[in-house]
Design brief:
four-stranded parallel beta sheet, Rossmann fold, about 350 residues, 2 domains, homotrimer
């Protein structure tokens, strides 16, 4: 039975904890497992651009003796068709049914990035591209950010919170919406909140009223949170929310009510240009010491000001570094089954 | 003396058989040669896009300790000039004379994909880009699909036929033309038919009258076939041809009489939209059991229907997987000289 | 203290000599150091295209057990912002402040190519993109060609001169401007002249009067040359300069007085179309034996004629090959500290 990693909840909570513990040991050099991925290959399919994901997975594979192959459909390889049953007489050249099956024959695991196409949320919210890809592929499929989830980012977020805060249960995690010149997907905020919920944190999501996340995301967070002994709350008053925050996760996303209508969405978004995180606002957090998180790339002085990003509370570079370590742990877990048994 | 692999006929028939035998042992794990390509490098030059070729060669090199470098002239590297004696004051930035020579100094072998440009068949049929590249380069050059040949695909086709049919001599291989929204090159059908001819099969090529392959291709097939004890035949009645088929290879290609005139070619092609392979047609083959082959990417429900591709006769994924194994064997043969001596 | 390699003068002259000596031993196989870069990674950031640089660094890393990750901002990864303090509400998606810091967490070294943007020489001549990148990054940063310098090319040029001429001090190196359909950067000519100056050569730069290099480049050459016992001279009569040349380095560059105004620059350049190096002109060099150098890619029959490039005096392929060997030495020097102590 092959294991996929499409969502953090695909793994049992204890399995996630083991992954995080292994990641931390790898990061600290307490464990090195230099040949755990010897001659293993990961095929990475980027339907959308990447810096961190690509670089960190390539380095992760190499550090343990493996190799990542990078494919970019529509650029260096053929444009993919993702719909079932379609008559392919248009511009798409290869169906993911073939691509997924073939790559599963070449590589030991396949990783896929497929952002939403931005047409119809009622359909795209099913996250079918990544799910179909996984169902076609005979090897473990790893989600590098789909329409709904970015679980590798979620793992890195969780590791960062554990590293910076130590004991996480009951501590306040504020996910705050930010302005951005474009309507961005919701996969990262949903995954970050799920990560904090997994850690039993008091999750507060602050956003303008029009920017609610999908109800299924909220339900998933509530379920994970309940099991882990935390809570989830939505507020529209960002400044109040920051008061007792110990971690502030800044992220922009588009209004789902206007999904597929960017001009309308821009009108909804326009009044909230002041939702930019600044050093001054970070001073309002608990003991003026909350860590500042962001998945990167970040629009400087739009989402977060220079002084906040370059200031002492910023954890964004550590958080990006943690992508490397959680992915080392993930690949070792999936491909060599040597994930450690100790808890963090 | 360096060895190139531009066409299956560059190798003696016994050498091809040894390659196929090694590929099969590698596939079955009977031989692993984990360090046969230790620290060897293959420079891959893609003047045109790729999924299978790129991924399978990268994995092939890594599996034996080597590494493939991927270059894409005109995108990530400089646009190539291929004509001799030209005054380069236009848009091309680097001549293949330099590129081929330099890459031959960096890598242990160089692989090149260069599709036809679609201007003038009388000139392009000479396949000069790949041949010039090989003549300039001091290291083995491997054809990743040129105007006239795709010999790595041919090797994979041959391995698939041997695996699926066992004894191949005298058994019926039907290469059937298919409709496609674009005029495609003839390298794959020529190489597939050559592969079947090499195996001594009874090769039947079914296509509408306007879609004859180049006479030189037909002559090459006839010569290979005669040596191997098989036969080659062209028919225009697809359904009759399928009757006793044991392997059905579906492939589209453009009419060479209209090469360089796509609008005219589209008019020629239009009446043959019904040349789509279906599950029902596959039932008309010998004992309703012929294997279905295609080089991929395939236009679903245009070249081949969903039910045929996803049905029990489909061998297209195995065929794609075999790219990996024949290329492992090829690289080991070219770079380490350890190709096994046993015949299949 | 991390070491960057942004300019040849970042290293002490003796250190450059050691690098060149190691490169030569590696090239000749007198030293192999097969595991000197075992499991080390180099992240390469190409803001502009590359063939030689990319291929030679990938091969260099692999030959010693390491791996190079290739990133292409604006294509496969996010478009970079390079200005400080900017409000990023336009088309750039990630600031190099984040990119440089993050890549320095993933890889053991980071290499960057960033050509001039072609707007304002008074500003761009500060070479701030590469310098900022290095200041943000916690790991060694290697210049793969910035606005002002291409030091890896300079190292390869120096190695080629040593190999071909043996003793270099006092021997005549002529850098001659060439016509080209576009205004090219000055990083290569400046770096080549610096390399020859480092070797104590009699450096002669021949160019039409309008094509002076930046005064700072001239000052740097003069300083390096004085220390090494050579000389630097500018002339406008190419044919006279060739008389006693033992090495002829052909290179085109744009007129800095028209930087950012390509139409004006083209007018300045137009009268000099005859500045193309030919076999006949090479015959005018010392004993008709001067070696012909060029960094590649070269516009055949525009910068250099076919007969010169393909003739016996051409060293351009050896020069390109030397990129590989100097970069092997450079990476080993930066990442494993095992650069040999012997002088050449």
């Amino acid at each position: 039975m092959k294991r996929d990693f499409l969502d953090m909840t695909d793994f049992a909570p204890s399995e996630v904890d083991e992954l995080l513990a292994l990641a931390l040991r790898l990061k600290r050099g307490e464990e090195s497992l230099p040949d755990a991925l010897h001659r293993k290959t990961l095929a990475m399919v980027f339907m959308d651009p990447s810096l961190r994901t690509r670089a960190s997975f390539e380095v992760a594979m190499h550090k343990h003796g493996g190799h990542a192959v990078v494919l970019e459909p529509g650029r260096s390889s053929w444009a993919f068709e993702t719909e079932r049953g379609v008559v392919m007489d248009g511009t798409t050249v290869e169906h993911i049914a073939e691509a997924a099956r073939v790559l599963g024959r070449y590589a030991d695991a396949v990783a896929v990035r497929a952002f939403p196409k931005g047409n119809d949320w009622s359909k795209e919210r099913q996250d079918r591209v990544i799910r179909d890809f996984a169902s076609y592929c005979g090897r473990p499929v790893i989600n590098l950010e789909s329409t709904r989830r970015h679980p590798c980012q979620g793992l890195a977020d969780a590791l960062t919170l554990k590293e910076k805060l130590g004991q996480t249960r009951g501590r306040r995690f504020v996910l705050t919406w930010a302005y951005h010149p474009k309507a961005l997907p919701t996969a990262v905020p949903a995954s970050a909140a799920l990560a904090a919920a997994h850690l039993g944190m008091e999750v507060v999501i602050a956003h303008p009223p029009e920017f609610a996340l999908d109800p299924d995301d909220m339900a998933a967070m509530t379920e994970v949170s309940a099991r882990a002994g935390g809570s989830v709350q939505v507020v529209h008053d960002r400044d109040a929310a920051l008061g007792s925050a110990e971690a502030v996760y800044v992220k922009s996303w588009g209004a789902l009510s206007c999904f597929g209508r960017p001009a309308d969405e821009a009108v909804l978004r326009a009044p909230y240009r002041s939702w930019c995180m600044t050093g001054e606002r970070l001073q309002q957090t608990q003991d003026a010491r909350a860590i500042l998180m962001h998945c990167l790339p970040v629009r400087r002085n739009v989402e977060i000001s220079d002084d906040a990003l370059d200031g002492p509370q910023s954890a964004v570079i550590d958080q990006a570094e943690n992508r490397l370590h959680v992915q080392r742990a993930l690949m070792i877990h999936l491909l060599s089954g040597t994930a450690g048994k100790e808890s963090l």
